Amino acid sequence: MWNRLYSGSPLRDLPWFAQEPYPPLVRAVESGRLKPPGPILDIGCGLGTNALWLASRGFRATGIDLAPTAVEAAKSRRTSESRLADFRVDDILRSELPAGRFRAAVDVGCFHTLRKRHRRAYSQGVARLLRPGATLVLFWVAREETGTWGPPHRLSVGDITESFESEFRVERIEYRPRTGRLTRQVQRERRPLTVLAGYTAELVRRDGLQPAARG
Asked: Which domain does 166 fall in, by range?
């Protein structure tokens, strides 16, 4: 499905295309909470905007995506400043990357596309790739978003803690309400996900497995 989407539309017409990196990711870097050189993983990297920006800031950035067409497009967007960004076809649910390779990861729009039955496997897959103490910056469209446009799943904070608590602790959560109407102009000129109500969380990889909660 993803490969068809990337192959069937001009890249700039895709609703998740963005010229600029995700603002909470930028703030995490500028505040020093994420520090180069990493290495850092961009999960569901799409056209590579976040990974390319990270590479231009001195990070050893790797972007992964299920769609080969997305990976090829991301590679074609590398510049002299971001030439060290690495892009690979890979599935975070069954990744072939080495365990414990990364000091940080970012997900802007991958997790909220997954069905509920895959969420624990996602958490376990990311945890396998991250070192203890590593930070995951995770964005998802919020349950508070009532519009019809957007990803198939609108998640609560409880959905996130249920999925991630065994492998991660929540360091901070930021809620962003809807910032405007999703007009045709917005859909043509901006990345619609930046308009929808959403959350960004910073999760920290635990040193060991958290015991299951007791009722």
From this structure: 2-205
